[in-house]
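Example pasted here:
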Amino acid sequence: MAVRNPLVAHLLGDQLIAPPPSPLQTAQDLLGHTFARPELLAEALTHRSAALDHWAGKKVFSASNERLEFVGDRVLGLLIAEWLAERYPRENEGQLGRRLAPLVSQPVLADIADRLGLAACLSLAPSESKAGVRKLATVLADAMEAVIGALYLDAGLDVARDFVRRAFEPTMTAQVNPPKDPKTGLQEWAMHRGMALPRYEVVSTEGPSHAPVFVISVTLAGKTGMATAGSKRLAEQAAAAELLGKLSS
C-alpha cells in the first residue's frame, strides 16, 4: 500500500511503514557522511537545469553544482596526486602524471558515480530528467566532483580523502603499470587509422599567474574531449584521456 503522506509513517496492523528516504539522506548514506551543512550537498546534487525553478507562479533561483564542481576538481586532483606519491614512492613525475590523468578523467568519474548510485539523487528539470540527462557521463562526472567539493567544504580534507580512497580504490588497484601518456595514445589511435593528428585548443585561461587554470579541448574523429587543470600539459593529458574514453566506448 502506498503511503499517501510521505512525512508520516502509518501503522497497518503490526507493520510500520516508514516514508522513503529523501534524495539528500540517500546521498549521505552513499557517501558515508552526515553533513553539518546539508545545503552544500543539496547544491552539489543540483544540475544547472534545476537551478531555476518555478514556485507559486514565481521564478526561484537556486545554486547549481557548477561552483562546487570547480572546488571538487582541485580537491580531487590534490588527493589523487597525494595518494599516487604515497603508493608509488619510486616513480618519477612523468610516471605519476600518466597515472593521474585517467584517474581524474570524465569516464572514470562517471563510472564511479554510476556505481555508487549517485544518479538517482540528482535534481534536474523534469524535461531533462525525462530525456535521460541524469545518466550522461558529463552530468555524472560533474556531480561527482561537486560532491567531493561539498565534502571538503563541509568537513575538511580528511573526510574528503576518506571518501575518495574508498570510492576510487578499485580503479586505483586495477592500474598495475603506469598507463601510456594519453596524448601519445590518442596520437597513435589516429595514426593507426590514417587520420589527421588530434587538434588541441586552449578554450580559456583564468586565475593569477602563480595559479593559472587552463581549459583545454582536443578534437579527433568528430568527437571532443575537454578538461581543466592547473597546467596546460596536465589539461591536455586529461582532455586526451577523456577523448580516448569516448572513442573506445
User: Anything to note?
Assistant: The CA atoms of residues 188 and 194 lie 10 Å apart. The chain has two domains: 20-178, 180-249. The two ends are 42 Å apart (CA to CA).
